[in-house]
Design a protein that fits this description.
Strand content of chain A: 15-25%
Number of domains of chain A: 1
Largest sheet of chain B: 5 strands, mixed
Order of helices and strands of chain B: HHEHHEHEHEHHEEHEEHHEHHHHHH
Structural class of chain B: alpha/beta
Structural class of chain A: alpha+beta
Organism (chain B): Microlunatus kandeliicorticis
Oligomer: heterodimer
Helix content of chain A: 25-40%
Shape of chain A: globular
Distance between the termini of chain A: 13 Å
Bound molecules: iron/sulfur cluster
Mean pLDDT of chain B: 92
CATH class of chain A: Alpha Beta
Strand order of the largest sheet of chain A: 4-1-5
Radius of gyration of chain B: 21 Å
CATH superfamily of the largest domain in chain B: NADH-ubiquinone oxidoreductase 51kDa subunit
Distance between the termini of chain B: 63 Å
Strand content of chain B: 5-15%
CATH topology of the largest domain in chain B: Rossmann fold
CATH architecture of the largest domain in chain B: 3-Layer(aba) Sandwich
Pfam families (chain B): Complex1_51K, NADH_4Fe-4S
Family (chain B): Belongs to the complex I 51 kDa subunit family.
Protein name (chain B): NADH:ubiquinone oxidoreductase subunit F (NADH-binding)
Radius of gyration of chain A: 13 Å
Low-confidence stretches of chain A: 1-9, 74-88
Keywords (chain B): 4Fe-4S, Iron, Iron-sulfur, Metal-binding, Ubiquinone
Number of strands of chain B: 9
Low-confidence stretches of chain B: 1-6, 363-370
């Protein structure tokens, strides 16, 4: 998975959770309360509205198991597809 | 270069696109899109005949009774997407598995993939994980499976009936195909009828838009009075018997009732079965079936099943908590397993709300003199 380039911090982004990887320690909610809450079992409830990319990245970086990620719009699936097809 | 023959891949995929065929496994996703995404990636083609839903028997029927179009469809799709391997996935030791062993799979270049039993093992990404040497549980895939990633290269997973329809389509043409169903949901499709039907579960072939009365008549009518219908199985939606008979059975017709045709399961719940007990048993089973990987599924499903038990026992104050928890399940698992459980429970609340007081008055099953007249379980 290509990491997000920091050069594009001006744009907006949305965060998403890899549910299988997430272990519910809730660090992301502490850092990004304006978009992430926790359910009664401690797992994140994500508000899908876009936010400043830089702020989102900070939260992404704090997740200890890399379960939190930026959801790329439009352009990104292609980049991922290319990486995937050359991957193997 | 011949102008008469387009590359085989384009022709088959164009035909599938023109036919309007959608996935018959429950997702109703346009088939050609998945195919197009996989072209050029040398994908694996997985024909999914697992049928994790206990009352689904259509894929088994195909393998046992009419495998020709299935094998033809698999061969054509494999060529269209340039598949490097073709696999027929069945639950290990199932009747479908035994029937598949009698087919000439070798002659068609198809391998048999015997996946472990279980509800979530037949989920598309679980099959891919198993195929790649991992456990048969859903895996994270931020890119579509048909595109693939480093850990799980491209795989096109199609339900067995979907592949069977492709085989028919290539043989009989788009016009024949589109004569069935509705303009938006074209083509023949299988329904699996179970519950209050003789010798069920039974398979009926019809098109989207068919009436429930027609489906039930096709299996010789119902065997006892029916209270409700479960559309698309345990991960589907409950409908009242009367309302279910008034709408066309298509996604469009069922949408106002919060349901869809899905995998084609039509389960008739007898009036003699307590619906609250039936739903409770399904929620328990769905909670046990969780692969236990995702918090909202691991903790949410047992919590919802427990709420259901308390609710039906008449415990006050549970309904609000249950509704809140049901709202927290959809879209919060690695696969759609929690979404299905939430759909089942939420639709059951809508359809069976009037039964709650009656049932609770008698304390459900445990009381000496239950007010609920329907005492049978599932
Ligand atoms: S920080 Fe990561 S692991 Fe912790 S709750 Fe958030 S997404 Fe899950
Ligand atoms: S949602 Fe449940 S069944 Fe699906 S991957 Fe997560 S734990 Fe497994």
């Amino acid at each position: 998975m290509p990491r997000i380039t920091v050069a594009r911090t001006s744009a907006d982004a949305t965060v998403a959770v890899d549910r299988i990887a997430c272990d519910g320690r809730g660090l992301c909610a502490a850092l990004l309360p304006e978009r992430i809450g926790l359910d009664e079992w401690g797992y994140p409830v994500v508000d899908p509205r876009p936010l400043d990319r830089g702020t989102a990245l900070e939260a992404v970086r704090i997740c200890p198991v890399r379960a939190l990620y930026l959801r790329e719009e439009a352009a990104a699936p292609d980049a991922r597809a290319k990486a995937a097809s050359s991957g193997r | 270069m011949s102008v008469l023959t387009a590359p085989a891949s384009t022709r088959v995929i164009d035909l599938v696109a023109e036919s309007g065929l959608t996935g018959r496994g429950g997702g109703s996703f346009p088939v050609h899109r998945k195919l197009t995404a996989a072209v050029g990636r040398r994908p694996r083609l997985v024909v999914n005949a697992c049928e994790g839903e206990p009352w689904s028997v259509k894929d088994r029927w195909i393998v046992e009774n009419d495998p020709g179009p299935l094998l033809a469809g698999a061969t054509a799709l494999a060529r269209a997407v340039g598949a490097r391997r073709v696999l027929l996935a069945v639950h290990e030791g199932s009747p479908t598995h035994r029937a598949a062993e009698r087919l000439d799979l070798d002659g068609h270049g198809i391998e048999l993939l015997g996946a472990p039993g279980g509800y979530v093992a037949s989920e598309a990404s679980a099959l891919v994980s198993f195929l790649d040497g991992g456990p048969a549980v859903p895996v994270t895939h931020r890119a579509p499976l048909a595109v693939g990633d480093r850990r799980h290269p491209a795989a096109v997973v199609q339900n067995a009936e979907t592949v069977y329809r492709v085989g028919q389509l290539l043989d009989r043409g788009v016009d024949w195909f589109r004569r069935h169903g509705t303009p938006d949901e074209p083509g023949p499709r299988f329904f699996s009828l179970s519950g209050a039907v003789a010798g069920g579960p039974r398979v009926v072939e019809a098109g989207a838009g068919v009436g429930l009365a027609e489906l039930v008549a096709a299996v010789g009518g119902y065997t006892e009075p029916v209270r409700a219908v479960l559309a698309s199985g345990w991960s589907g939606s409950w409908l009242g018997w009367a309302e279910a008979g008034l709408v066309p059975w298509s996604d469009e017709g069922l949408r106002p009732l919060g349901a869809g045709v899905g995998n084609g399961i039509v389960h008739l719940l007898p009036a003699s079965v307590c619906p609250l007990v039936a739903v409770g048993a399904q929620l328990d089973a769905l909670a046990r079936a969780s692969a236990g990987q995702c918090g909202p599924c691991l903790f949410g499903l047992p919590a919802v099943a427990d709420d259901w038990r308390r609710l039906t026992a008449g415990e006050p104050g549970v309904l609000d908590r249950l509704r809140r928890r049901l709202g927290l399940l959809p879209g919060r698992g690695g696969c759609h397993h929690p979404d299905g459980a939430a759909r089942n429970a939420a639709s059951a609340l809508r359809v069976f709300a009037d039964h709650l007081p009656t049932h609770a008055q008698g304390g459900g099953r445990s009381a000496g003199r239950p007010a609920c007249p329907a005492t049978r379980g599932v």
